[in-house]
């Protein structure tokens, strides 16, 4: 595999351990070069030598813990994955490659816009939720509430809410199961009258048995 060839190349080009006795050897009749004092001498795996000393081989860097060339470098970055060898990433999905695909963002395929109010800011998706429409403003794309009452078929009163609407009915009426139409409430079921009760649309009327007349409060019989 290409990875093994790369590793073999590094092993051939690098010296794993600094050879003992090589450092500071002086031959008779020769002087140390002026640059000898500043030469960098490293010991460990993935160390390469040159006329200026030694350093990490290409594709490797120093590990902060050991000070040896054991950390691989991935030129293209591994995103949410892990760099396991020079330009080789181990990705969260178990795959390996020169880089890892970026995880999908939280704002959908159209990206995010920054929405700020009441002193706080948050990223808002450019794909608006149900009941909101996308509007281009001077500060970018914003999701604004749609006034469904402009087109809602409420039999009674329509109340616009954030992301929707609610139908309401007047006194003596109640909202039907379809949440749009209104139906009469039979107030007589609550026995508001002393003798007799007659329900009407949105209201009711009390009456008395023979020999009685309706009190001024319109409910009691005298």
Binned strand content = 25-35%
Count of helical regions: 1
Helix content: under 10%
* Strands, total number: 17
Give the terminus-to-terminus CA distance: 106 Å
Record the strand order, biggest sheet.
5-6-7
Helix-strand pattern: HEEEEEEEEEEEEEEEEE
CATH architecture of the domain at 132-184: Ribbon
What is the name of the CATH class of the domain at 132-184? Mainly Beta
List the defining traits of the structure above.
EGF-like domain; Laminin; vWF_C/EGF_Fibrillin; mainly beta; 222 residues; 1 helix; disordered N terminus; three-stranded antiparallel beta sheet; secreted; repeat; VWCE protein; two-stranded antiparallel sheet
Any overview of this molecule?
Residues 1-24 form the signal peptide. One of its GO terms (molecular function) is calcium ion binding. One of its GO terms (biological process) is cellular response to virus. InterPro entries: EGF, EGF-like_Ca-bd_dom, EGF-type_Asp/Asn_hydroxyl_site, EGF_Ca-bd_CS, NOTCH1_EGF-like, vWF_C/EGF_Fibrillin. The chain starts with a helix and ends in a 15-residue tail after the last strand. It has one helix spanning 2-13; strands at 47-50, 53-56, 60-62, 69-72, 82-85, 88-90, 96-97, 112-117, 120-125, 132-137, 140-145, 157-161, 164-168, 173-175, 182-184, 196-200, 203-207. A hairpin with a 2-residue loop joins β16 and β17. The protein is mostly beta strands and 222 residues long. Helices cover 5% and strands 33% of the residues. The protein has 1 helix and 17 strands. Among the domains are: 47-97, Laminin, CATH 2.10.25; 132-184, Laminin (Ribbon); 186-221, Laminin. The strands form 8 sheets. The protein has a 3-stranded antiparallel β-sheet, with no helix packed on it. Mean pLDDT is 76; it is low at 1-39.
């Amino acid at each position: 595999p290409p990875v093994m060839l790369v590793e073999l190349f590094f092993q051939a080009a690098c010296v794993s351990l600094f050879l003992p006795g090589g450092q500071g050897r002086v031959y008779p009749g020769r002087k140390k070069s002026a640059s000898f004092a500043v030469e960098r001498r490293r010991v460990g795996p993935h160390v390469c030598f040159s006329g200026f000393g030694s350093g990490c081989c290409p594709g490797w860097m120093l590990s902060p813990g050991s000070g040896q060339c054991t950390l691989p470098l991935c030129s293209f970055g591994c995103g949410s994955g892990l760099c396991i060898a020079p330009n080789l990433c181990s990705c969260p999905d178990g795959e390996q490659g020169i880089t890892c695909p970026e995880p999908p963002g939280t704002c959908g395929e159209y990206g995010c816009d920054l929405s700020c109010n009441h002193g706080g800011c948050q990223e808002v998706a450019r794909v608006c939720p149900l009941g909101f429409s996308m509007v281009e403003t001077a500060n970018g794309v914003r999701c604004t509430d749609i006034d469904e009452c402009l087109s809602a078929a409420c039999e009674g009163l329509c109340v616009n809410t954030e992301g929707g609407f609610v139908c309401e009915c007047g006194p003596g009426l109640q909202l039907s199961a379809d949440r749009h139409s209104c139906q009469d409430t039979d107030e007589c079921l609550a026995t508001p009258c002393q003798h007799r009760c007659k329900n009407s649309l949105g209201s009711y009327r009390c009456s008395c048995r023979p020999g009685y007349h309706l009190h001024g409060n319109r409910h009691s019989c005298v």
